[in-house]
Amino acid sequence: MVLAFIAAAVIGACTEDFQGGAACPALCPEQNVTVFDTVVDPVVVDTTISGFPTHGTEQELLLARRGDTVDTRPVIRFDSLPIYYNPGASTGDTVIQVIDSPYVKLRINKPASRFTEPVTFEVFDVDTTTGDSAFAAQDTSTAIEKLLFRPDRLMGSITFDTAQITDSIRIPLDSLKLLDKIVNQKRLRLGFRATSTGPVHIRIIAYEGGEPGLVRFFPSADTAFRALTVFPRSVVPRSQPTLAADLTDYVHVFQHPPVPDGTFLSVGGVPGRRTIIRFDIPSRILDSSNVLRATLELTQRPVFSVDDTAKLTLYPLIVTAGTGITDLGRSAFLTNAPNAGFDSVLLAPRDSGVKQIEIVNALRAWGLPVSKSSQKALVLRAGPESVDPRFVSFFSSRAAAHLRPRLRISYSPVRSFGIP
Fold it and tell me: Which of 134, 132, 137, 149 is nearest to 189 (CA)?
């Protein structure tokens, strides 16, 4: 009789429809939560934005040469050169009139660099203006420097075997040319070029990376004196110190693999490119449901280029900009950090077909009240940026219907899960 009473109580409980929560389905199968699956075309804007990171803010400088496909050349500025040295005598500082054994030292990210044959490093004087003119004080253009990688501007060169390229290299500089810069108080701006019979891909630690290149020399023919070290610095534009700091070192891209036209979405390459996608998701999903899964499906278009079978890492990032920011380029900068809330995806440039990116955390965030004024947008970026010529390409919302980006969503009506 006791067992019969307990059974009757349980059966009676399962006939009740509790409004206080959604724990009952575990006990009462007939009240399981309904799950809806839907596929939507939510993209209202999708495009590719170029120039990431911005000019001069790279953590590493790419020095690369791969035939007529890739050619990138870094520049490092030394706008403040010493004109005195202290010989240690009671006479005080002495004007530098002779220098000995000058060289520029570069720190190398050796594990991420690739070369198979001896490499010749060349250093050029790419300074465009001298003196203290108004133009020199405010000059922010670097385009003309690309014309100055000429034989008459060569300041030094050296060839290293593959085993000699370690975590740092030293390139000797012309003593007379450097002395002229010091004596006449000119600026020293060095451009670097690498050549080899094989592909060259060298990543140099930048000023923003914490170990910038430096120039070192003896200020006397007597090498018993301590060598002087000159650290990189840009003094222009003088009215904008932040921009001047960005111009301490940067990279000129002379040649890069062909990029698809604007009807396609591209991620990666040099200069770095990002894809931004803005969504319009039905309010019944964002505001009135629990999103259980959300998958962004993109159709990849194969790219045949350098190292196109090696995997490239893609990071989906949520845009943190508000709806008041309409500039797509600016919105593409304002994102969360890579690997924050989303899994990265590995893709090879020559892959094709539908690729899936899980973005459920984005939809859950957009459904929160605090996100009402936030953009419903994602950014796809490669990692790292501007130091890898490879990129991937996708069909955009302007392609045929079966190739366009789409969103596959699983959701259930809003309920408060828990014990009633």
Answer: 149
Reference 341, options 329, 357, 322, 325; nearest CA is 357
- Side chain identity, residue 394: F
Where along the chain do its domains lie?
36-51+260-413, 57-247
- In the structure encoding, which two tokens stand for residue 173, read together? 């500089």
**CATH annotation of 36-51+260-413:** 2.60.120
* pLDDT block averages, 10 residues each, the chain of length 420: 43 42 50 84 95 93 94 96 82 87 97 97 89 60 89 97 97 97 94 97 96 95 86 90 93 93 93 96 90 96 93 96 93 92 95 96 92 94 93 96 96 66
- 3-state helix, strand and coil shares in percent for the chain, rounded to the nearest 5: 20, 40, 45
Question: CA 282 to CA 194: how far, in whole Å?
Answer: 53
Does pTM surpass 0.90?
A: no
Burial of 254 (0-12, 13-18, 19+ CB in 10 A): middle
Decide if 143 contacts 253 (C-beta within 8 A): no
d(C-alpha 418, C-alpha 23), whole Å: 5
